[in-house]
Amino acid sequence: MARAVEVNLSLEGYEVHLAGDGNDALEKAFKLEPDLVVLDWLMPGKDGIQVCRALRADPRTANVAIIMLTARSQADDKVEGFTSGADDYIVKPFEPSELVARVSGVLRRATQMRDLSPLTRLPGNFRIAAELESLVGDPHAQFAVLYADLNDFKSFNDHYGFLRGDEVIKFTARVITEALSAHPSEPSFAGHVGGDDFVVVVAPDTVEAVAAEIIDRFDGGIGELYNPEDAARGFVEVVDRQGVRRRHAIVGIAIGIVSSARRRIATQWEASAVASEMKTHAKRHGHSAFEVDRRTD
């Protein structure tokens, strides 16, 4: 059955990876961060329902589209599949054309309904605003907001082109979700504002560890996106608008942090503004760094 699914989706131009059991499925999903997962219900190790819940619980795969593919056709089974986090449910036996149509439809609806960036597959501005609005509206919520963007990203784009620049943006999104996965908390959210700007929401007691993890992972991997000779030199040379050749350092990440544990945050706009202000201070370091708003009410 898995081979049949692989063949039919591959013929439609999709890149397909197979997993032999539930544990293998989770391992590959966390590594590959796919756009969609097709899950059988009955699998060795973790079953499809357990895998579905684990995918939804992990920041790296929380937004992935999921289709349950199973012979279990009772109404209660479908309800359990949907409540575990599945987007669609296909009952065996099925026609290949139905599978292809369902995959296309689920991918389209998931992107629209979850307001996902087509580049990073992270939630966009609408979901970011809703997340912050929900937290600031709860008098008992404790949260911290990180606002991140990249240093010298424009010089990378100018030197290598926008397609290579997109790889840096996708790399940054992956670094952020991996850092969130390494430091579980409640809340735990990552969004892509656009361009090279990201918003992350975590618990106050984990925020500095998350920021440090993001920086370590970013600095540890960004050099691989440069040509080897540029990475070895530690800079690229770009001609500015005045025709002057200037050196630009390897791209870094700047993070600003504001926490409700230190000050009352009244609106989502205040959360974004203060975190962005701190991010501006972090950028002045000239390398990857984070700055925390330590002012109190």
Q: Give the averaged pLDDT, no decimals.
A: 91
> What general outline do the C-alpha atoms trace?
globular
Q: Give the neighbour order of strands across the main sheet.
A: 5-6-4-9-10
Rg, nearest Å = 21 Å
Uncertain regions spanning at least 5 consecutive residues:
none
Question: Which homologous superfamily in CATH is the superfamily of the largest domain?
Answer: Reverse transcriptase/Diguanylate cyclase domain
Distance from N terminus to C terminus (CA atoms, Å) equals: 60 Å
CATH architecture term of the largest domain: 2-Layer Sandwich
The count of domains is 2
Order of helices and strands: HHEHEHEHHEHHEEHHEEEHE
Report the CATH topology name of the largest domain: Alpha-Beta Plaits
Q: Approximately what portion of the residues adopt beta-strand conformation?
A: 15-25%
Describe this protein's structure.
By secondary structure, the chain is of the alpha/beta class. It contains 11 helices and 10 strands. Strand 5 (189-194) and strand 6 (197-202) form a beta hairpin. The relative contact order is 0.11.
